[in-house]
Amino acid sequence: MKALRNLLDNIKPHVQKGAKFEKFHSTFDALETLFFVPNTTNKNGVHMRDAIDLKRTMAIVVLALVPALLFGIWNTGYQHFLALGQDASFWEMIGHGALKVLPIVVVSYGVGLGIEFMFAQIRGHEVQEGFLVSGMLIPLVLPVDIPLWMVAVATAFSVVIGKEVFGGTGMNIWNPALVARAFLFFAYPSKMSGDLVWISGLTKGEGVVDGFSGATSLGQAASGMAPTHSIAESFLGMIPGSIGETSTLAILIGAAILIYTGIGSWKIMVSTFAGGYLMGLLFNLWGANALMQVDAIHHLCLGGFAFGAVFMATDPVSATRTEKGKWIYGFLIGFLAIMVRVFNPAYPEGVMLAILLMNTFAPLIDHYVVQGNIKRRLKRAKVAA
Amino acid sequence: MSEVIKIKKGLDIQLAGKADKVFGQAELPELFAVKPTDFHGVVPKMAVKVGDKVKAGTVLFFDKYRPEIKFVSPVSGELAAVNRGERRRILEVVVKADGADEKEQFGTANAADLSKEQVVEKMQAAGLWPFIRKRPYDVIANADETPKAFFISGFDSAPLAPDMDFVLSGQEEALQAGIDVIKRLCDNVHVGVQNDAASKVFKNLNGVTVHTFSGPHPAGNVGVQIHHTMPISKGEVVWVAQPQEIIAIGKLFTEGIYDANRIVVLAGSEVEKKGYYRTKLGASISTLVKNNVKTDDTLRYISGNVLTGTQVEEDGFLGTYHSQVTVIPEGDYYEFMGWAMPGFNKFSMSHSFFSWMCKKKEYRLDANMHGGLRSFVVSGQYDKVLPMDILPEFLFRAILVEDIDKMEQLGIYELAEEDIALCEFVCTSKQPLQATLRKGIDLMIKELS
């Protein structure tokens, strides 16, 4: 620790402005602040600061994602051996899953952080921490059989087009991880939907048990069948789906961490689930096709709904920033997600589209909340006058 | 008994180093100073030269653009130095006390017999006008304006702040005399008190309306109290002053002198003998803190509280509006993997450190930033600690893009730096919000005058 500090102190003069390796200032700074919280103290204004910083905030979100990641790793193995009809031990499943999932995580972080460092360098900024979360979110919303090069392309697209063109962390309009997923979905639809991509090894089709379908429940419902998986299975997550989104339970553990630490907005989570539930109930009443008949609670456990509500919709940068706005924003996401899911059989996963749409409208919602505040103040002035 | 106004939003920072309610003994220092930087928007013009003899109440400097606003010496002695900073800006006007305690005589008067103009004139002549500040903008009041009310906060809710009941006990008469003067300036005088304090001093005052508040800091901020009782809209003005300043105003009329005596609290985790001390405005803090602080770490001396105070040297001077001296560790260290540690000793409004497990604990906090400056990322934090119907983040954005109309619409008239100090404290992105707000206020003053 002391040696590391000394090493950094030795390098530091060489990467300052005007020194020989000035170009590497951002990189050095990122690494230095990763290892050591800087010794800067408050000069003007408050003399004390809350202990929290953006690194801590992002680290907590990553921590909240860990249950979903671990479950995703296990489920990847579980689904794989289920498809092959083989018995496998817990550790074999974990082993297989880890081999499949971890490379995706590594590629996502490698490519994303690489680009972030480059941009910080070019702009002479500090490296901002936003990608620590995006880099974990991206793998968790992808099907496990996705080729690694696609992960790399999508990550690059999301960091450059989804974030850096707007000015970096804090400036983006859409959730970068969803931009990556949307990019893949529209650029390579065959790798992002259908019955085969969700289970590792199924695309090649070797040795699969006869009659095994890798279809997701949503895929089944969209094609008019009742889902084979029960609500309980969907809730626990032993179903095919994107890596991190299957287990509602694991996601709810993450939600508990986010809400308890105060980092994720419980208002958005609650209102998203409420919006989805209400729309589900309305469709139940209508009941015209298999998707409409899916139980409202079941709807919330299917596909990426829970994952989107807990981890995607709550991204503070792309969500509404007023407290009242959060209720409206979340509710509409839930409402629209189920609506897209039911009305668009070509692509039953509506959560991604609903969130991206509401990201777009978040400033508008905020605008009306702000106008409301302004009007209240004007009214008060008139009453007083 | 009026109803209690409950302030729900806010945050009490659990700081170690609270002072006991006892008076400590400390000699008065040799040096005193008036710091023009304490007064927003004042361009000082010197009235005396280095070496001149001054008495308590002798004008040291005045505002170049409002020469009727004068700033006077707290003690008798001679002008020792005029310390200047960048671009020859005057930072400190230092007086070396001679111990003779000579006072300028301004003559006693019965405020009730005087007109508003005469009261103003008398206060300005004796250098007391700077204590009357106004909202909006939190600057020295303009005597030509007619305020809709005069508001005095009867308690200080900031971290480690002095207990006003204790400070004021025994000075009831002078306080009432001051209130009588204030009533000549503005008949509508309001006082805010805390519901779990006795506040006898205030409740026994004649001619004031008392409002009772409960809840965490910033409930004691006069801006918050005004917001909940008579919010300021465009074109309205409320004048404010602090209780000890009212006493000084009272003494001008009853005794005919400029009274610089103040009771300050000396607090903070690094102070050995915490407590209340009798001193004077602008006193050097050296006699208070010498041999009275722990010396394990580099220390930060603050005139005022940890949220809004001014950093001073160990022989620096007490600010004009401050009745508190706080000493905390500087915190200029590197913390290995600090952002990843469990953090049992860290204080955070969020529950992201394990310190939430031991709620009641008092924390020894330092001036470390705990992170780097970032753009606005986390939302909703400011709203939790600003008990006003204001959307702080949107106001700050309006200030950053210098949109005067939006700033006005979003309520900049109601805010002073102290009101949003907690927003700055909790900010994950470590934004300098008080400086941002002042920039906005300065812009408003410039554009609208």
From TrEMBL, chain A:
User: What InterPro entries does the entry give?
Assistant: NqrB, NqrB/RnfD
- List each coiled-coil range: none
Q: What is its main location?
A: membrane
Catalysed reaction(s) here are: a ubiquinone + n Na(+)(in) + NADH + H(+) = a ubiquinol + n Na(+)(out) + NAD(+)
Entry-annotated residues carrying FMN phosphoryl threonine: 216
Q: Name one Pfam family in it.
A: NQR2_RnfD_RnfE
Give the E.C. number(s). Answer: 7.2.1.1
Please give the family membership noted in the entry: Belongs to the NqrB/RnfD family.
Q: What is this protein called?
A: Na(+)-translocating NADH-quinone reductase subunit B
Organism, as annotated: Carboxylicivirga mesophila
Q: What is the lineage of its organism?
A: Bacteria, Pseudomonadati, Bacteroidota, Bacteroidia, Marinilabiliales
Automatic annotation (TrEMBL), chain B:
Is this entry keyworded rRNA-binding? no
According to the UniProt entry, what is the EC number of this protein? 7.2.1.1
Domain named Na(+)-translocating NADH-quinone reductase subunit A C-terminal is located at 263-313
Q: Which domain of life is it from?
A: Bacteria
Q: Which residues form the NqrA N-terminal barrel-sandwich hybrid domain?
A: 5-98
The first-level EC class reads translocase
Q: Which UniProt keywords apply?
A: Ion transport, NAD, Sodium, Sodium transport, Translocase, Transport, Ubiquinone
Catalyzed reactions: a ubiquinone + n Na(+)(in) + NADH + H(+) = a ubiquinol + n Na(+)(out) + NAD(+)
Any idea what job this protein has?
A: NQR complex catalyzes the reduction of ubiquinone-1 to ubiquinol by two successive reactions, coupled with the transport of Na(+) ions from the cytoplasm to the periplasm. NqrA to NqrE are probably involved in the second step, the conversion of ubisemiquinone to ubiquinol.
Q: How does it assemble?
A: Composed of six subunits; NqrA, NqrB, NqrC, NqrD, NqrE and NqrF.
Can you tell me which family this protein belongs to?
Belongs to the NqrA family.
Start and end residues of each NqrA second alpha/beta domain: 114-256
List, alphabetically, the HAMAP family matched. Answer: NqrA
Establish whether keyword Translocase is in the entry: yes
Q: What is this protein called?
A: Na(+)-translocating NADH-quinone reductase subunit A
InterPro entries hit by this protein: NqrA, NQRA_2nd, NqrA_C_domain, NQRA_N
